[in-house]
Amino acid sequence: RAGAQREHRVNRAFSIYLDLVRVLAALAVIVYHSNFRLLTTEKLPFSNHGHAAVIVFFVLSGYVIAYITSERENTPVSYWSSRLSRFYSLALPVVLLTPLLDLAGEALAPQFYTGGTTTYGLAWLRILTSLTFLNEVWLVSIMSFSNVPYWSLCYEFWYYVLFAIVTFTAGRTRVLLAGAVMLLLGPKILLLAPAWVAGVVLFRWQWLRALKPLPGALLFAASWPAYWLFHQYGLTEVGSGWLLKLVGPHLHQQMAFSKFFMTDYLLALIVVANFAGMRALADVAARPLRAIEPVIRPLAAYTFSAYILHQPLMQFYAALINGDPGRPWFYAGTMLATFATIAVLGSMTEQQRHHWRHGIRKLLARLFDRRDRQVVAPAAGAPHG
Prior knowledge:
Elements: H1 2-34, H2 50-71, H3 76-108, H4 123-132, H5 150-168, H6 171-185, H7 187-191, H8 193-204, H9 206-209, H10 213-232, H11 235-254, H12 261-281, H13 286-300, H14 303-321, H15 328-348, H16 353-380
């Protein structure tokens, strides 16, 4: 019983830490995208961590999916009802809202959209690929209007698909389905898959799970200077440079958000070290982590909304206010309006995903039940020898 209580305490403390990381990573992405000259003339602190934050999200996502499938979402119906409700409760309204915001913003102050993806170009294709998460297959890169961060959802969704195939199928079916999906996706999405899989390994590797506090503390402490050195020496761009020399400028450009993959693997290992170290220390750090829980948990509940909504909202409000980027109030007003709208829209979408989950679960249960009856029925009616 004491062991079970300790495990619960450790899981709770580590969960709070992961939520803290989720909040900080979302803020890093938002700061990265807000640091353009028409919004502020100053270079914002911590504004060069945007891509790194996405890799953090990938590792975190892999860990969480491995955890929840071991604890509760251990059937295809429960797994997909949760995954689809999480995505579509927000993706559907965001994909439909973004072109409307872009149209209004461009009409008010077109300079905030100069050089970006035009709202008018193949809108039907952008909406269709965004809702099916096919924006980044092979060497295609179809932006979801002004919503640049949407690309990572198109990676993560297919990692969910491949994970489900590996988890819920076996034998020849598994090989054929996984092969078909990988053939559909092409190289870009698959090249960043190891960063997501690193999170799964973090959860499942018994050696890391059994890590003692002292080596955990050393691992956790070492991960911070490792991350600092990674950025100090610009290894994200170094990896991009290596790929450029290998494949040439045309293919390098076509790789879009995957062109940093060579050093993204190293970054994923640093993140794994940080998470593994904190998990080993979670019992020791339980008290301070519980102290920040009342603040972190509510913020973490809106990180997905913040991640996927901030870009189109930020550009729209910048165009609506249309102030002087040399004045701090313009940036502050734009971001305040953005965060306020995220809170409202997040409450109406992401925070209501349990309704989506219930409806999707009923639909999937009906489909699986019908399929099972079709498989069983011929055998039931067959003559006995």
